[in-house]
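Quick illustration, no need to memorize.
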Amino acid sequence: MGNINSFHILAKPTGPICNLDCKYCYYTEKEVYYPKGHSFRMSDEIVESYIKQYIASQHTREIVFAWQGGEPTIMGLDFFKRAVSLQKKHAGGKQITNTIQTNGTLLNDEWCEFLSTHHFLVGLSLDGPEHIHDQYRIDRGGKPTFRLVMKALSLLKKHKVEFNILTCVTRHSAYKPLEIYHFFKEHDIQFIQFIPVVEREGTEMGLRHAAPPSLFMEEAQQTVTPWSVEPEMYGEFLIQVFNEWVQQDVGSVFVMNFEWALASWMGIPSPICIFAEECGRAAVMEHNGDLFSCDHYVYPEYRLGNINDGLLNMINSPSQHAFAKRKRDTLPSVCRNCEVRFACHGECPKHRFLVSEQNEPGINYLCASYKKYFTYIDPYMKVMKQRLQAGVPASIIKEKQ
């Protein structure tokens, strides 16, 4: 798996608990794996053990803590004040950075003042204009959340909190790329990442994701949820946004999907796990200290242990090494010979449930999208690579259109 220092943990202080009920969410249903009456709150003992071990395990100058959910702000501000205090206590001279992914609905001035003071990078979930966002992002009472999220956006700007927007691309929204992109530009949003919604229907316990994602599954079109993006449409969505971005916004709007691609063309290891050759460097710690192989594999069979067992012991365990290599070792032959393999590497194993025309299993559901998208941007990426290697800003490409 490589250098033991190059791993990352997503900490979930409230576990799967959230104040929203987004239809496409794959995580909130994990609540069923815990007994009735279970407290989904990370204890002071767990958070200190985690912070101390995580800092000690990283041999880099900067340590990045990532807080996710569920909805992490449900923990309340005092929890994060204590976390920051513990980080300072155990920092040992290292620079500590925090990121938090939130739906934004609980943010207020006090929250944003804290996030600004302590230089948190906030990932705010916003799917686009009101009619698109509210189609799936509703609260527990079925009410829309768009206006609350827009209020949060205003507060983040007011307090000069660094933030980016995380946008889920669904079957519906995949047909509205420019409407979504224009909406973000109109609101002066400079950092965006697009995430495809691909979720399969499940039968066990009435859940969509009760069974862990398998590398091999046939008849995928019959098993994905109605809100899952269609196999080719995510690629088309990215291409439409890319066309406008490359002509008008290089250097002023940062679409992380395009940044990740450029890294691949530059020969830099992927900054995101889904496009890395191997998995295993992005583990998840639940609210009770249990560690799992990956955010998409929080199932009993992928539990590595508990924080009390020792963080490095779990990261370096044979089971995690096996998990890491499985992505590369099970790559179908059609992928091994693909011209865009260097940028894709078969993407996330969670999505590898199609069967090829030659009856080979393990084909990524989004293969058609990625092949189309990466092939399309190839000439542009080559020009950007040349410009950057020559010390010229990539934004010069706008003048060449």
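Residues 203-211, 215-222 have pLDDT under 50 and may be disordered.
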